[in-house]
Amino acid sequence: MITIKQRSGRRTSFLRFHSLSIAALGILLFWVVLYIRSDPNTHGGAFFGNAIADWSGSVVIIIATKYLFEKGSEESRLVKERKKKSWQYFLRCHSLTLFLLITGGLWTILYLRMNPMSKWGQVVGNIVSEWVQMLGLVLLTKKLIERGSRESHK
């Protein structure tokens, strides 16, 4: 089994260290396989297609928030203060938003070139919607709070 040496010197398995990402990717793959074998004009097929969009958004949030940042967003990791005037600092502070904008733009271009009523056109349309929702939540959590939410306590 692959192990990773932690800062404390103790070893932990790769599977344990990334179990949430692996499980979410497995569930996403499960929905893709079911959708490939289904008729999108049935309730099950429509559900599987929608589940692909939902779980792809979950996978992105799980993995992207491990490595990308959004300054001021409670949903993102903290940005270590460095050179505040540099363009690299800007890119680092807003890497989550930039990632969602760029990948969302690519999904949108793909969607615009597809038949929206085709089997995969519907899925890609749902993915575009999911990306817009994720970007909106990242931006909204920069300034807005929700009473009783752990993330809103400062």
Describe it for me?
The chain has helices at residues 14-17, 19-36, 43-67, 87-93, 95-112, 119-140, and strands at 3-5, 11-13. With 154 residues, the chain is mainly α. The protein starts with a strand and ends in a 14-residue tail after the last helix. Helix content is 61%, strand content 4%. It has one domain (3-141).
Query: N-to-C terminal Cα separation, in Å?
Result: 40 Å
Shape category:
globular
User: Largest beta sheet: what is the strand line-up?
Assistant: 1-2
* Element order: H for helix, E for strand: EEHHHHHH
Secondary-structure-based class equals: mainly alpha
Q: Could you tell me the number of beta strands?
A: 2
**What percentage of amino acids are in beta strands?**
under 5%
Low-confidence stretches: none
Give the proportion of residues in helices: 55-70%
Q: Main β-sheet: number of strands, strand sense, barrel status? A: 2 strands, antiparallel
Gyration radius from CA atoms, angstroms: 18 Å
Q: How many discrete domains?
A: 1
Total DSSP helices: 6
**What number is the mean pLDDT?**
84
